[in-house]
Model the fold of this input.
Amino acid sequence: MQLIPNHAFWNFSVKFYNDDSIASALHLLQTKHQLNINIILYCIYCGLSGRGAINSVQINQLNHAVEVWHRKITKAIRQLNRRVKQYRDFDAKIHELIFSTELLTEQIEQSIIVDTVPVRAIKRRANQLKIDDAIKSLHHYFESKKINLLRDTLIAVKTILTKAFPKLLQNDNQLDLFA
Done:
């Protein structure tokens, strides 16, 4: 398995996540429903880049492939990072080292995702089909986790989709799959 620091999915994720409203929406989905941010980002990435929807079988493969790594490694490093932040006396270098390690675990998790469900060649797809693909992929993911989205989580999903597809989320009826 190869780390993907220059992979298009990683580059997309870093840029997309850098938006505060996106980061907040993703964290809400992560903390409230224990959803995996990297899988959510992959659903958006595949739709946005014209690679198509991720079907329910592929979502199940992703869930299975990243589950142990995410639970035992990524979450553990993330928790350590949060604990260290509580101690003001710690040297900033220690926090930086732990944060770098956390990013590395995220990169490895993304490489597991890409290895499990490789991205298809980019197709020429109409923009509306791209958002439809992203919505279908997210729906399959939320369904696999038996998540019924309530008002605040629907708002988070809408925030993510609106930022990914400005002017394309035509109306809330497109989100009816989540109701």
Residues 56-85 form the longest helix (30 residues). Residues 128 and 168 are 7 Å apart (CA to CA). Helices lie at 8-17, 20-33, 37-48, 56-85, 92-116, 127-144, 151-164.
